[in-house]
Write a structure and sequence with these properties.
By secondary structure, this protein is of the alpha+beta class. The protein has a seven-stranded antiparallel sheet.
Length: 223
Amino acid sequence: METLEKYLKQHFEKGILQAPLFLRWETALRFELTEPGVTMDSPNGLKQAIQRSVALFDEVFGDEDDLLVVAEVYTKKNHNFFEKRPLSTYRTFVKSQEVLDHLRHELVTEPRSAEGEEMITHRFLQPCRKQDLRYSLMLETKLFEQERMPITGLKKQPNSRFELYYLNQNRHIIFHVFSERGCDIIATDRNEIRPLYEKYNEWIEKAHRSMIDARFTEPSTGF
């Protein structure tokens, strides 16, 4: 979509909205949403993942920030749920019809799947403020993707999946919960997300700890 493409071209790069964000952009953080060894089917795992994702979201998005939610739903071409009712999913998450009226939807053709089926991406763009969203529910929906598929209209579609990207257009930060295990946060200015590195340092993903420490402890090089 033109507005999104212009924004990404100006501040990030074309095609940046693909997982994993952490490996696509230098100024990046990756956080663990659960401690190693904690399973998601345990009460502690469920509670911890929700608490951490919401805490990080609240740090990235202030009440007055302009937020753009980009939802990309990858599914079979003949799965026409969204063509018939493209607003159905967002009505679950957006509090007011006035905000929902600004939702935009488009279709993006994708390569055939491994099984040879024609695939398509339904892309939704929702401009809003944080208080316009039931963002805790949105985060939970991605954290527990399989259990929450009926909310997204993807029930009984085994090849379907979705991604939710949250853009802070004032601070130029992109927030992405990529699974129940982790969250990627990227920015154009390292200083915008340095406080996250310092405040939630214990949550930094251990597998990439040395890389992240090097990025956020060395003297500034302008990124």
